[in-house]
Automatic annotation (TrEMBL), chain A:
<dbReference type="Pfam" id="PF00148">
    <property type="entry name" value="Oxidored_nitro"/>
</dbReference>
<comment type="similarity">
    <text>Belongs to the NifD/NifK/NifE/NifN family.</text>
</comment>
<dbReference type="InterPro" id="IPR005973">
    <property type="entry name" value="NifE"/>
</dbReference>
<keyword id="KW-0535">Nitrogen fixation</keyword>
<dbReference type="InterPro" id="IPR000510">
    <property type="entry name" value="Nase/OxRdtase_comp1"/>
</dbReference>
<comment type="function">
    <text>This protein may play a role in the biosynthesis of the prosthetic group of nitrogenase (FeMo cofactor).</text>
</comment>
<comment type="pathway">
    <text>Cofactor biosynthesis; Fe-Mo cofactor biosynthesis.</text>
</comment>
<dbReference type="InterPro" id="IPR000318">
    <property type="entry name" value="Nase_comp1_CS"/>
</dbReference>
<feature type="domain" description="Nitrogenase/oxidoreductase component 1">
    <location>
        <begin position="38"/>
        <end position="433"/>
    </location>
</feature>
TrEMBL record, chain B:
<protein>
    <recommendedName>
        <fullName>Nitrogenase molybdenum-iron protein beta chain</fullName>
        <ecNumber>1.18.6.1</ecNumber>
    </recommendedName>
</protein>
<dbReference type="GO" id="GO:0016612">
    <property type="term" value="C:molybdenum-iron nitrogenase complex"/>
</dbReference>
<dbReference type="InterPro" id="IPR000318">
    <property type="entry name" value="Nase_comp1_CS"/>
</dbReference>
<dbReference type="InterPro" id="IPR005976">
    <property type="entry name" value="Nase_Mo-Fe_CF_bsu"/>
</dbReference>
<feature type="domain" description="Nitrogenase/oxidoreductase component 1">
    <location>
        <begin position="24"/>
        <end position="438"/>
    </location>
</feature>
<keyword id="KW-0560">Oxidoreductase</keyword>
<keyword id="KW-0479">Metal-binding</keyword>
<dbReference type="GO" id="GO:0005524">
    <property type="term" value="F:ATP binding"/>
</dbReference>
<comment type="similarity">
    <text>Belongs to the NifD/NifK/NifE/NifN family.</text>
</comment>
Length: 455, 458
């Protein structure tokens, strides 16, 4: 049985065994090998794909170095977001303040790159030394005539979710500052897709085929000018709810724009994401076009999916992702492939998320919040899974244990969204679950003593 | 095309870093700590730092990287992180049960001024540290130095916490290998083994970050220098430290603490630096160099003679960590190549002096910068083009933009494998590096050759 600290027991639930009472939203235990990140990380991942803006990280160099082009958020034009800019604070500025350096850096960057806007991220130390980042941004904005937006993302001031919030606040300042002319009644913004492997391009195309104008993609393949006029769209679609619900809510409050929560993963959810919009606009011609589109797209991938399903039926999977919302789609997508989800968890799920997961999953499924590698490895072994879906830190754990792995985080290199994405996903899962290497290596070999050895 | 905005004209910048050639101290401390057997590195700060460091190390080594965090929240940063650290120590021993917890600070805990030794001693008094278990610490403010400094600091802490002199000299040498790959540490041990020398290598990440697939996830793999070994370093006959920047401080601390005489050598990358390393081993341990090692050297020299025309006057730009660059620069010169632009992100006057010294005859006009960034390097390359670029993965942008052959070397390498499995130190490592340089040149030659000049034999 997996060894779990007393304090963490409430964050693990086994469906069917006990009444549902999942604890979550807790700060991680000090000393845990948590897979979670910080406020800065949350802000950075959300805003990063805005490709014609400067993203300046204010603080010591580390935070900027680690987030340099790790997201794979593709741009169809400018690539400014893929460079790494840091004020590289040194000891002297920690003592005397870094505002001067921040000012100089901004001026230099704006003069050289002529960006459409600049985002300034405050990291841990800025909160402590008390630089007035807002004032510097204001000054530069006035001098240079572009929006310069502070992002309050001091690492310790909460969790990744608070970083999402800070990013949404910054976006809200931008939205509404551009002209809303020329926007059709059937128009949307796509929120919370980060265009990993070009996913937003596919989604955009679906909606355009339905006859809808896409005003802004926030933030995948994002452009400042689009975002500035995003208040003119008739509807907001939120894909990554964890990161963008907050913005959608604020837009509803401020501009009255309604929003829908959607998911682009798996054919069921993808189709539903299109139908939801067609229903919203209540236009029969659009509905007909949507039906055709869905039919054609599914017809194109389904026969191949069935092939993969044959090989994958009966295999078991474990899912550990950042936000819980993605997990719903993954459970469903795996089902289409004939696979069962035996373990599912997230870093930041809410109580409702976990409840929904419980309803979705089979008996015996382990549901876990803010897990650590030791627990995760224990669950993988206990359930005898064939596939682990997670992020960069989970990959080598799976491989060491002899289990297939699929990155459904920001390191994915192929598009997993959309109908084609489902096929890509199936292919990737098949490739790793059925790899011949697993026949040649030990898998979850017996525990070799020591509490720490999980396998 | 990603870097199409880079202007060739260099304008001095005081404030801004563009595309850094370094990162912050804690990650170096984390890597060094992983080289102690049964050690869990612990990051005293907020969760983000720890997550970033683990992700970056994971991408580079393709191994599970374990490290815990104090999970600072706003409260901790106002009232200090004492409660978090004490609780962390307690939790870590309860659930992960390491032999050692190696605490390093972050910019946050440094700035709020947490006194880690005092907190640790409180934890000890409160009985939170089980008998026979240790908590060591090092101070790694990220606004000082770079990741290399962090590595040096944690290695020095190993000495401060563990080295002891019992008064009886042991017939063994200490080797501090610097921030090199697990494969390099393995190679150093292989060489000293061939020479019949007993050594304590610290830190030692071989068998920690290059582990075999066993069907099991080992939280603490079998490798790493053990505590008794670390203790015994105070009784060793001498210390050989490789790389002034990463290993010098620990070697000097050991000399001061336990009177173990030390020599600080360059990293044994390339022919001459390896010669000096082997010679230092021979003299210090009082052994003779076995034929097998002389033969390895001979094969390396043979390879260079066979292929020297390909290296002649090739202009090279390189960036990375100072110890690596110093050794690599000398190696390139010995191959008749011309290192013309050299950038490290790690600050330090000594670096520029050493490089100028090595190049004074061959490239007196070298562009060299400590505390530079890869934007500057790119600008230099634009105004004075090169035939080869050597550096970590981030160099791929420049290589693509300028269409230059590129050899990945250093930290981090996120998009290739091999670095953690095959050494670049020693004679064998030099052969591997040469192979890489040659492939880069020859692939380019084949690619660019006109139809009528495309030939089978090169
Ligand atoms: S907050 Fe400081 S210590 Fe942490 S990653 Fe950023 S620069 Fe490094």
């Amino acid at each position: 049985m997996v060894k779990v600290l007393e304090e963490r027991k409430g964050q693990i639930y086994r469906k069917g065994s006990e009444p549902y009472a999942m604890e979550c939203g807790k700060t991680s235990l000090a000393g845990s090998v948590s897979q979670r990140a910080c406020v800065f990380c949350g802000s950075r991942v959300v805003l990063y794909p805005i490709a014609d803006a400067i993203h300046l990280v204010h603080g010591p160099v580390g935070c900027a170095a680690y987030t340099w082009d790790i997201r794979g958020a593709l741009s169809s034009g400018p690539e400014l977001h893929r460079l790494s800019f840091s004020t590289d604070l040194r000891e002297i500025e920690v003592i005397h303040g870094g505002e001067k350096k921040l000012y100089q850096s901004l001026v230099e960057l704006i003069d050289r790159y002529q960006p459409r806007a600049a985002f300034v991220y405050s990291t841990c130390i800025i909160g402590i030394i008390g630089d007035d980042v807002g004032a510097v941004c204001k000054r530069v904005s006035a001098e240079k005539g572009i929006p310069v937006l502070p992002v309050h993302s001091e690492g310790f001031k909460g969790t990744k979710k608070d970083g999402y919030r800070a990013a949404c606040e910054a976006l809200l300042q931008l939205i509404g500052t551009g002209p809303a002319e020329g926007i059709q009644p059937h128009s949307i913004n796509i929120l919370g897709d980060f265009n990993l492997a070009g996913e937003v391009w596919m989604i955009r195309e679906y909606y355009e085929k339905m006859g809808i104008q896409v005003v802004a993609t926030i933030t995948g393949d994002g452009r400042v000018d689009q975002i500035r006029r995003a208040h003119g769209a008739a509807l907001n679609l939120v894909q990554c709810s964890g990161s963008m619900n907050h913005l959608a809510k604020m837009l509803k409050e401020k501009y009255g724009t309604p929003y829908l929560q959607v998911s682009y993963f798996g054919i069921e959810d993808m189709a539903e994401a299109l139908y939801q919009v067609a229903r919203f606009f209540n236009d029969t011609a659009m509905m007909r076009r949507t039906e055709e589109l869905v039919r054609d797209e599914i017809a194109a991938v389904y026969p191949q999916l069935l092939e993969y399903r044959k090989a994958l039926t009966g295999k078991k999977a474990a899912i550990y992702v950042g936000g819980a919302f993605k997990a719903f789609s993954l459970v469903k997508a795996l089902r289409i492939l004939g696979m069962q989800t035996a373990v599912v968890g997230s870093q930041t799920g809410s109580s409702e998320d976990y409840q929904q997961l419980r309803d979705l999953c089979d008996e015996g499924t382990v549901i876990v919040d803010d897990s650590n590698p030791l627990e995760l490895a224990g669950f993988l072994k206990e359930k005898g899974v064939d596939l682990f879906i997670g992020g960069v830190k989970e990959r080598p754990i799976a491989y060491k244990m002899g289990i297939g792995f699929c990155d459904h985080n920001h390191e994915r290199k192929i598009a997993l969204a959309g109908f084609v994405g489902m096929l890509n996903f199936a292919r990737e899962v098949h490739g790793t679950v059925c790899s011949p290497i697993w026949k040649l290596v030990p898998r979850y070999s017996c525990c070799g003593g020591g509490v720490a050895d999980v396998g | 095309m990603l870097l199409r905005h880079t202007p060739s004209e260099v304008k001095e910048r005081e404030a801004l870093v563009v595309n850094p050639a370094k990162t912050c101290q804690p990650i170096g401390a984390m890597y060094a700590a992983l080289g102690i057997h049964g050690c869990l590195p612990h990051s005293h700060g907020s969760q983000g730092c720890c997550a970033y460091h683990r992700s970056t190390l994971t991408r580079h080594y393709k191994e599970p990287i374990m490290a815990s965090t104090s999970s600072f929240t706003e409260g901790a940063s106002v009232f200090g992180g004492q409660a978090n650290l004490v609780e962390a120590i307690n939790n870590i021993f309860t659930i992960y049960n390491p032999d050692v917890i190696a605490v390093h600070t972050t910019c946050l805990s440094e700035t709020i001024g947490d006194d880690v030794p005092q907190i640790v001693s409180k934890a000890k008094d409160d009985g939170k540290i089980p008998d026979g278990k240790y908590v060591i610490h090092t101070s790694t403010p990220s606004y000082v130095g770079s990741h290399v400094t962090g590595f040096a600091n944690m290695t020095k802490s190993m000495v401060n916490y563990f080295s002891e002199s019992s008064g009886t000299e042991k017939d063994q040498l200490n080797i501090i290998p610097g921030w090199v790959e697990p494969s390099d540490m393995r190679e150093i041990k292989r060489m000293t083994g061939m020479m019949g020398i007993k050594t304590v290598l610290f830190p030692d990440t071989s068998d920690v970050l290059d582990t075999p697939q066993t069907g099991k996830h080992h939280l603490f793999p079998k490798g790493g220098v053990t505590i008794p070994e670390l203790r015994s370093t105070g009784d060793s006959r001498a210390t050989i430290a490789l790389g002034q920047f990463a290993s010098g401080p620990a070697a000097e601390a050991l000399d001061a603490k336990c009177k173990v005489p030390c020599q600080v050598l360059d990293l044994p990358i390339g022919l001459m630096a390896t010669d000096r390393f082997v010679d230092a081993l021979r003299k210090t341990a009082g052994v003779s160099v076995p034929d097998a090692i002389t033969d390895e050297r001979g094969r390396l020299v043979d390879l260079i003679t066979d292929m020297h025309q390909y290296f002649y006057r090739k202009r090279v730009a390189l960036f990375g960590d100072p110890d690596q660059l110093i050794a690599m620069t000398e190696f390139l010169v010995s191959l008749d190549m011309l290192p013309v632009h050299i950038v490290t992100g790690t600050p330090g006057q000594r670096f520029e002096q050493r490089i100028r010294e090595i190049l004074k005859h061959d490239v007196p006009q070298v562009n060299v910068r400590a505390a530079g960034d890869s934007f500057l390097l790119h600008q230099w390359i634009k105004s004075e083009p090169v035939d080869l670029l050597i550096g970590n993965t981030y160099g791929k942008y420049i290589a693509r933009d300028e269409d230059i052959p590129f050899v990945r070397f250093g930290f981090p390498i996120l998009d290739r494998v091999g670095h953690s499995l095959f050494p670049s130190v020693g004679y064998v490592g030099a052969m591997r590096l040469i192979e890489k340089f040659l492939y880069a040149f020859q692939d380019r030659q084949d690619r660019d050759a006109l139809e009528e000049k495309f030939e089978l034999v090169m």
